[in-house]
Design a protein that fits this description.
Blueprint (H helix, E strand, L loop, with lengths): L6 E6 L4 E6 L2 E5 L4 E6 L6 H7 L1 E6 L5 H9 L7 H5 L3 E2 L8 E2 L4 E12 L4 E12 L12 H4 L2 E4 L2 E4 L33
Antiparallel strand pairs: 1-2, 1-5, 3-4, 4-9, 5-8, 6-7, 8-9, 10-11
The structure holds flavin mononucleotide (FMN).
Length: 193
């Protein structure tokens, strides 16, 4: 499955924050909003995720590619990844797990179920709050995707997003005919007497 989002998952507390890179994640329900992360029990963050039943999925921009890789190869048992990568843990709104200030979008999550899958355990969670960097929100309140500059991960490589190919529903949307940008109304000609 590629590309997938390489996210920075933060857990623990503001005083003792932990962070690891997670690419096994996604949205599984709209109403109520639900997500999951799959984490190997061997990870240093695992017992904290399990005990506190909270985490934040932070979506990094391309400028954080190095931090994403670092947080995915170094363990919190050896280094303070926040300090090493200059990441700032800040208070979240609905959970005690910290948000990462440098990420344009953060999803605050509360675990509802832990499902052992084999190599990984799946943490199914409710998304209880979403924060978005003000600079990434347009006047209409919509997310300005180009400003977020999200990362993608495919078969061991990191990418930034390419050019936009269309918007939701473009495959079925009626095309404007060239030279007919305004709506025209057909007025029936008066019958000639
Ligand atoms: C791009 C990328 C994606 C990763 N995705 C996951 C994942 O979905 N689940 C997981 O358990 N580990 C994943 N890892 C590995 C962990 O992030 C890595 O083992 C990390 O060092 C664990 O940190 P910790 O020991 O401080 O908890 C990924 C690593 C990278 C580089």
């Amino acid at each position: 499955m590629a590309p997938v989002p390489p996210t920075l998952v933060s857990c623990g507390t503001l005083e003792e924050p932990l962070v690891l890179t997670v690419a096994w994640t996604g949205i599984v329900n709209t109403i109520p909003p639900k997500t999951y992360i799959s984490v190997r029990p061997q990870r240093h963050s695992y017992p904290v995720l399990r005990q506190r039943e909270e985490f934040v999925i932070n979506l990094p921009g391309a400028d954080l590619a190095r931090a994403v890789d670092y947080c995915g190869v170094k363990s919190g048992s050896q280094v303070d990844k926040f300090k090493e990568m200059g990441l700032s843990p800040i208070a979240s709104h609905q959970v005690e797990a910290p948000t990462i200030a440098q990420c344009p979008v953060s999803l605050e999550c509360r675990v509802s179920q832990i499902i052992p899958m084999g190599s990984h355990d799946m943490f199914l969670a409710d998304i209880v709050n979403v924060t978005v960097d003000e600079s990434c929100v347009g006047a209409d309140g919509k997310l300005l995707l180009s400003r977020c500059d999200f990362l993608a991960y495919a078969h061991g490589s990191y990418f930034s997003l390419g050019k936009e190919l269309g918007t939701f529903g473009f495959s079925v949307r009626r095309k404007k005919r060239p030279g007919k940008s305004k709506k025209t109304f057909h007025t029936p000609k008066k019958k000639e007497k």
